[in-house]
Amino acid sequence: MPSGAQAVGSDMMIEVWSDVVCPWCLVGKRRLEAALAQFEHADGVTIRWRSFQLDPAAKVSDPDMAGDHAGHLGEKYGGGREAGLAMIEQMTQVAAQDGLEFRLDRATGRNTGDAHRLLHAAAAADDGYALQGRLKEALLQAYMRDGERIDDRSVLTRLAVDAG
User: For the stretch 145-159, what's the b/e string if a residue is b when 16 or more beta carbons lie within 10 angstroms of its beta carbon?
Assistant: First the structure.
């Protein structure tokens, strides 16, 4: 059985550790969904989202703060802003291959602690984890595609209400 998967009675639970600001996490989510769509026992598979903060030291941002995601990536991984722009372009192309629209030019570094707490609350409210899955998708899309501030409680409230 793969690491992170466990049998639950006759069903299987897959636990995924990810952050809501990780572009690879959304690509991986889409690829997992595609694999499950081909799996004849997919109706017996439950996905549970676990928290992993890429940057737990990130500050909750000032609403008026203009972010430079490319500059942050270039500083964190080396190569400066130009390297950050290249990373964003490469990630955008990879995402497009999986039918995803990324607008990481809109993204800014954010603290994801409240988003993760909200995902845990969604899991506790629905033991089938469907609500948590809808909320996870909404958070990922809000950040990757829409450039929303997922550390803003009004944004989190709206996404949670919309997810159910």
Answer: bebbbbbbeebbeeb
Q: Do residues 109 and 146 lie in contact, with contact meaning Cβ atoms separated by under 8 Å?
A: no
How many angstroms separate the CA atoms of 33 and 57, rounded? 31
Quick: pLDDT tens for 46-88. Answer: 999 999 999 888 877 655 445 678 888 888 899 999 999 999 9
Report the largest interatomic distance among the alpha carbons of the chain, rounded to a whole angstrom: 51
- Confirm if 119 and 51 have CB atoms less than 8 A apart: yes
Say how far apart CA 55 and CA 13 lie, in whole Å: 27
Look at strands 11-18 and 5-8 and give their pairing. Answer: antiparallel
